[in-house]
Design a protein that fits this description.
With 555 residues, this protein is an alpha/beta fold. The chain has helices at residues 35-45, 76-81, 114-121, 139-150, 153-200, 206-217, 220-235, 241-253, 263-289, 294-314, 319-383, 425-428, 431-446, 465-478, 491-494, 521-533, 539-554, and strands spanning 2-10, 13-19, 24-29, 62-68, 91-97, 103-107, 110-112, 125-129, 392-403, 406-415, 423-424, 453-457, 483-487, 499-508, 511-519. The strands form 3 sheets. The chain has a 6-stranded antiparallel beta sheet with strand order 2-1-4-5-6-7. The protein has a 6-stranded mixed beta sheet with strand order 8-12-13-3-14-15. Strands 9-10-11 form a 3-stranded antiparallel beta sheet. It is elongated.
Length: 555
């Protein structure tokens, strides 16, 4: 429950600190005094956007801080999942709007993003205003009410997980089927391309080897002439290199006795002659192997031309690139050939996920239908004393295809006049009637759902007299289980308050500011008397106020 609220530099509020108690707290004040400003500031704590126009002084930081007692509301797992410190007796939420508009949020002094803040807020406070009444016409809100009363949160989470798996499998299946259809159209072409590559029987690095062979075969005469010249130069006649080396070796060997140091030189010359002779023999062998073979050259040229044609077709530069394309085409066709099995397996997965989702949806549906009947009966019993004695209320349930909410379509239907057929609530209720219907819903939900605090912002507009008293009594009943804070202009509602805060405006040297004062029992009674009589406070109004408070205490 809300324990403390601090507001700084927001709208008409310069600095305001308020403490709150359990039970029903009434907030009253003149129109424009700033009652709804307090709710607007509190909404910042709940993750709502801050209107720049609401910043009192744009040169100063705006800050709203609220302290909650969250003992017994089962929020330990939420704090653990979001890496937040958990203190059951005090959860401090702070929202700061810096100069320039940058917003920051903190939970127990740890920074959090707005998504986490909003998620936490759903467990702490429910602010209900006249604007919130529009939710009543929305199918999702109606379904959420029934699920809340049925305690379907764990079941909804299980269904959400299962339905998400179903949707993912369906998406994957659809994509695979589309790819299959596209591949089927391309299969013949892919097979043709692969056939060309397989038929030519490419070998790794074949193009490089063929190009070298082409170079040799195209220049046989030139190459043979060059090799013959080399051979003749080295060992052709008496003037050849070998002949000269042998002469040099012999001369050196002839001086060994006189010059022992030349013996090694002579040996080295002989070794060079041997090596040169071996080179000559090798060159001679290469020359002999060079054969002018036009047919082989034609074969090599044809092979290279075929390879080059495929390289141009596939926009690559080598045989190795063509082999990579061949491998890729083969993999594509293999995948196509196995896609029937893959699609069948995925279809089975979709069918299994659908069966599981359908089973959970039907389980949800059964609980909803049971609760819907009980809810409709309670709504009728609660609404009749609120000036709607002829009300008929029902929850129409119909089965629809599986969707994010299960297999149910729910619709709140109501009739306010005798012998009138029920109609969708959005088509038949006035603003005042919707407010009272919504109040009844909140009263029923409050008995079931663990929520520390609920705030009513002038939801009693359009009622008076005994109906207003019943509205106050209903709020008092809700306050037996949760903290209720209500802004009201009705003395009949205010009389039911256990605590009373009055909002007022004062003029200061810096401008008009909003203030709040806690009223004791006597002040509470006098404020209700003023609400009854207006500006002219009299004994009759005071007596009436005492009677209202006495009656409310007894009820």
């Amino acid at each position: 429950m809300l324990r403390r609220l601090i507001i700084s530099n927001y709208a008409l509020i310069d600095w305001l600190e308020m403490t709150w108690d359990s039970g029903l707290t009434i907030i009253t004040g003149e129109t424009g005094a700033g009652k709804s400003i307090i709710i607007g500031a509190l909404s910042l704590i709940l993750g709502e956007r801050c209107d720049s126009k609401a910043i009192r002084d744009p040169e100063k930081k705006t800050m709203v801080e609220a302290s909650f007692d969250i003992e017994g509301f089962g929020l330990e797992s939420f704090f653990s999942e979001n890496d937040l410190d958990y203190f059951e007796h005090e959860c401090i939420i702070r929202r700061e709007i810096a100069v320039g508009g940058r917003s920051r949020a903190f939970v127990n002094d740890l920074p959090v993003n707005i998504t986490v803040l909003k998620d936490l807020a759903t467990h702490l406070v429910d602010i209900h205003s006249q604007h919130s009444n529009m939710l009543l016409a929305k199918p999702q809100f109606q379904l959420d009410v029934i699920d809340s009363l049925a305690g379907n949160l764990p079941l909804r989470k299980a269904y959400d997980t299962c339905y998400a798996e179903l949707r993912a499998a369906e998406k994957q299946l659809k994509q695979l089927q589309e790819d299959y259809a596209q591949s089927h159209a391309e299969q013949d072409y892919l097979q043709f391309q692969l056939g060309q590559l397989i038929e030519i029987k490419l070998a790794e690095n074949e193009d490089t080897e063929l190009e070298n062979l082409q170079q040799r075969l195209s220049n046989v005469a030139t190459l043979k002439e060059a090799l013959w010249t080399v051979k003749e130069t080295m060992n052709g006649d008496e003037q050849s290199l070998l002949s000269h080396l042998n002469t040099v070796a012999a001369r050196l060997e002839g001086t060994v006795d006189a010059l022992p140091e030349v013996a090694d030189l002579a040996r080295r010359v002989r070794e060079a002659a041997i090596e040169l002779k071996d080179v000559t023999l090798t060159v001679s062998g290469i020359e002999d192997d060079l054969v002018d073979d036009p047919a082989e050259l034609e074969r090599v040229n044809d092979r290279l031309n075929a390879i080059y044609a495929l390289e141009r077709k596939h926009s690559v530069n080598s045989v190795n690139d063509l082999l990579a394309i061949q491998q890729k085409l083969q993999a594509q066709l293999d995948a196509f050939n196995s896609s029937d099995d893959t699609i069948a397996a995925l279809q089975a997965q979709v069918d299994d996920a659908r069966r599981k989702a359908q089973s959970l949806a039907e389980e949800l549906s059964a609980t909803r239908k049971q609760v819907a009947q009980e809810f409709a009966h309670k709504m009728k019993m609660l609404a009749q004393p609120l000036g709607m004695k002829n009300i008929e209320f029902e929850v129409a349930c119909s089965t629809v295809p599986l969707n994010a909410n299960g297999c149910d379509s729910l619709e709140f239907r109501v009739a306010f006049n005798k012998n009138q057929s029920t109609m969708p609530i959005k088509d038949t209720a006035s603003g005042g009637e919707i407010s009272r219907v919504m109040l009844c819903i909140k009263a029923i939900v409050a008995q079931t759902v663990q929520l520390p605090t609920i705030i009513f912002d002038e939801v009693d507009t359009g009622v008076s007299g005994d109906v207003a008293n019943m509205v106050g009594e209903m709020m008092g009943d809700i306050a037996h289980t949760i903290q209720v804070i209500t802004i009201t202009h009705l003395p009949q509602v205010a009389a039911h308050g256990m605590h009373h805060k009055k909002v007022f405006k004062t003029d200061t040297a810096l401008g008009t500011v909003t203030g709040v004062v806690d009223l004791d029992d006597d002040e509470h009674m006098m404020e209700i008397a003023r609400m009854l009589s207006g500006k002219d406070l009299n004994e009759a109004a005071i007596a009436n106020a005492k009677a209202l408070i006495s009656t409310s205490r007894k009820s």
